[in-house]
Predict the structure.
Amino acid sequence: MERKNQNLVAAYAKILREKRRAAGLSQEELAFRTDLSMSYISFLETCRRQPTLTVMDAICRELGMSLAEFIVEVERQVSAA
């Protein structure tokens, strides 16, 4: 899949990794809690995959934040780049 907005994908990956680590979760634990594979979480964090809204929502819930809060942080990161 071609990435037309690499800045957005990179910002999502960075925020995901930061929030996961801040929550004290390994990729394996986040994957288990969201019923995803560890490799998929890794792919998200390295810009090799883009999540669906359903996946984003599940991840956000496990990170203790709303999808809207997460997106605001991604937008801030994109604006700062």
The chain has a mean pLDDT of 94.
